[in-house]
Design brief:
With 417 residues, the chain is α/β, with parallel strands linked by helices. 40% of the residues lie in helices and 13% in strands. It contains 16 helices and 11 strands. The strands form 2 sheets. An 8-stranded parallel β-barrel has the order 1-3-4-5-7-8-9-10, surrounded by 6 helices. Strands 2-6 form a two-stranded antiparallel sheet. Strand 4, helix 8 and strand 5 form a beta-alpha-beta unit. Helix 6 packs parallel to helix 7. It starts with 13 loop residues before the first helix and ends in a 7-residue tail after the last strand. 49% of the residues are buried.
Length: 417
């Protein structure tokens, strides 16, 4: 089933409208999404081939209830077991999957749940990704925080008690250079024990520089592992290059990052195949870099500014829960993050089963933490949000709610010596 997207174009120039129309309607006007652009590092790795071969050969319709039962009975979850647990045949076994996933989570993580908050420092973007609120053709209020503003936002967040921050930008090297992101990392290290990055993919040397500036881990959304579908959704910009994005986590690890995160945006393509590929991306890299901390996210599409029609097609909470339980059973040691795209009720429940990390005090806008945390309005000094969140609980409320749910909220578990 294809997605339909409607981008507001009222404020685009005539030439920009012409270019946008050409990109949308004339595939030959787009660059080859499988060819590297100038300056993009190519690494020798066999991980991509392994993941895509497994994804392309995955026929989830062939799995039966007997396959699912066998997978749940096995002490160790094999790749075939995992494929069965992701299949439609597993949906009637969701309760048993949840019980097994909960046992694995308890065994390896206890009843802990890690809390963090994202901080968007810029929303300029040079990509045309048709489902994203930051895309370069979407008429939104753009903003980039300077060093003083970044420090102010970080202090507001740190004062709430948070000890881990995830720094995000739009994908624009000109507006958000590696050096700019590096300065943000240096500021973050003054206030937080853990600093993550969710920015555009980079070369190994750039990741090495950002690690030296204070970054601990990098998360990159592949969006969809289906390269053909990817081509129809990413029409312009560096993000259009599918293989460069795929290898980002491996370059980050080679650059010295302690951890990496993976994700597909469920609802863009066949969600079962994307879920399989995401987990296998972790599975194979885990074997090459056993010292690294790895995590999975499982976001679904959310409405964006100027387009409230973007939603997950056929990925409902039941299917999302199935994927998360399958992840936990197949990859028992991997962290699993569930974002504020999901409801309060879903997140309260899934942390008891499979998830180990959730965001709190979330804003996907620019420069608005003070207004959201303290109620003090910053007026024109705020940039528009990337997408609408679902769970808007503050850090304090989230901490209290998790405690009441019988969980042990953890703010940081890493000691620097």
């Amino acid at each position: 089933m294809e997605n339909s997207f409607f981008i507001d174009s009222d404020s685009l120039s005539e030439s920009a409208l012409k270019k946008k129309h050409e990109l949308e309607n004339n595939p030959s006007s787009r660059t080859n999404h499988m060819e590297y652009m100038e300056g993009m590092e190519v690494i020798e790795s066999d991980v991509c081939r392994k993941v895509i071969d497994e994804m392309n050969s995955y026929d989830y319709s062939k799995y039966t209830a007997r396959d699912v039962q066998r997978a749940l009975e096995n002490r160790r979850c094999t790749l075939e077991d995992f494929k069965a647990l992701l299949s439609p045949a597993a949906e009637p076994f969701l309760e048993k999957m949840a019980q097994k996933a909960r046992a694995e989570t308890s065994r390896h993580f206890g009843n802990t749940v890690y809390l963090f908050t994202p901080l968007y420092i810029a929303n300029y973007c040079e990509n045309y990704c048709v489902y994203c609120g930051f895309n370069c053709y979407n008429h939104i209020k753009r903003m980039k925080l300077n060093a003083e503003q970044i420090e102010h936002e970080m202090k507001v967040i740190a004062d709430s008690g948070m000890e881990e921050v995830l720094i995000l930008t739009g994908e624009s090297k000109s507006a958000s250079s590696v050096e700019y992101i590096g300065e943000a990392c240096k500021i973050a290290r003054k206030y937080f024990r853990m600093v993550g990055l969710e920015v555009y993919p980079m070369n190994t040397k750039d990741y090495k520089y950002l690690h030296e500036c204070g970054a601990d881990y990098v998360t990159v959304f592949q969006e969809t592992y289906d390269s053909k579908k990817y081509e129809t959704l990413h029409l312009m910009g560096h993000k259009r290059v599918w293989p460069y994005r795929f290898d980002a986590q491996e370059r980050a690890l080679r650059g010295g990052m302690r951890g990496v995160g993976f994700s597909a945006l469920l609802g863009l393509s066949d969600f079962r195949k994307d879920a399989l590929a995401s987990a296998l991306h972790v599975y194979y890299l885990q074997r090459k870099y056993p010292q690294a901390e790895m995590s999975l996210s499982c976001p679904r599409l959310r409405p964006i500014i100027n387009n409230d029609k973007i939603n997950p097609l056929d990925v409902h909470e039941k299917q999302l829960c199935q994927i998360l339980c399958a992840y936990r059973i197949f990859l028992p040691y991997v962290g699993i993050t569930v974002s504020s795209r999901e409801s309060k009720e879903f997140r309260n429940g899934i942390v008891k089963i499979a998830a180990t990390k959730i965001s709190a005090g979330v804003s996907t806008g620019i420069g608005d933490h003070e207004s959201k945390y303290t109620g003090k309005k910053s007026g024109s000094n705020e940039g528009d949000e990337q997408f609408e969140i679902n769970d808007s609980r503050s850090f304090k409320t989230m901490y209290s709610d998790m405690s009441e749910e019988g969980m042990q909220p953890v703010l940081n578990d890493y000691l620097y010596i």
